[in-house]
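Shift notes (night). Ran UPF0178 protein ACFOEI_08085 while the centrifuge was going.
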Amino acid sequence: MPTLWVDADACPRAARDILIRAAERTQVTAWMVSNHTLPLPPSRWVKPLSVSSGFDAADNEIVQRIAPGDLLVTADLPLAMEALDKGADVMTNRGEALTPDNIRARVQMRDFMETLRASGEHTGGPKGYGDVERREFANALDRWLARNKA
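Came back to this:
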């Protein structure tokens, strides 16, 4: 049975709620990994994993525990690359699949944008997380669960 791993510190509350409902409905374990305590409902399927607040502590814990066939939900591209290297599937909290075929281009674009910002260029931030993003994430998660439920 696959496990859901959530890089919960940066995951929008709406996406966490979708993950909680999906874990309960499908009886798949979802680990919410964070540097702080998250408000989570009591659940057999949704488990908190609080780690120290050190740099990349949550990322390191996820990489250590994730297994081939699991799903990681994150927007952290270096973490996504490590999870992909371990044979896990990766999806952003907007429902975008990160794969061995597209991750390097995404990392290069992120690095390019960081270089622009460091030079004083205003590049803007990510667009808001609204109804469209919630729906796309919920649909992508449901499709992944339907394909990967043991």
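Residues 59 and 79 are 6 Å apart (CA to CA). The chain has a mean pLDDT of 89.
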